[in-house]
Amino acid sequence: MIIALMANTAIVVLEIYVFSKLANKADILKYYTYLSNAIALITSGIFIVVTTLNLFRNCAVPLWLKGIRFCATYMLVTAMFVFTVVLLPRHKSGNLITASDFAAGLDPNRANFLLHYLCPVISTCSFLLMERQPVLTDSKWTLYGALPTIVYWSAYLLLTATHLWKDPYELSNASSDFSSKADALLFLLIPILSMGLDFLLWWLNTLD
Description:
Strand content: under 5%
Radius of gyration: 18 Å
Number of domains: 1
Structural class: mainly alpha
Helix content: over 70%
Order of helices and strands: HHHHHHH
Shape: globular
Mean pLDDT: 86
Number of helices: 7
């Protein structure tokens, strides 16, 4: 559990480092990458406090704490895979974290690495290897863990369809290099990939 505390502390430190330099804090609600990392920051902070107190009290980790860590880890992994598999190949240099996102002093390439790769890997390794107990045996956790993602993508589709905002990921941009059929497959790939990762992470958590 000490290693899990160290891993979650690393997540908190890295997230605070990035978000302290974010120019527009409203982007946290606009972009899934920022949202998932913000939730990871909050849940890892809660994990550190509750687990530290439980160590002194000799108490087990509560199920709800494992549940919110599952949610945060799932969101980080989803952001990593959607960015790497879907967005990056489609837009090449687009949809990357850019210098305009931050105040001076933070290299956007460093922020991209921290948010899209390092924090997801740390969280996943800690969740699956160091935070083994309690096990989320009930498959309902796949729904609970996905709720923030479902809310985000529902809001994204609604705001994009009604033109209440400029599509931040340009998935509806007809001027992309992809054909209309490829774009349709892209819209299908994101929820399929997300649901697959949700179930996979939950299943791995149940293994002895």
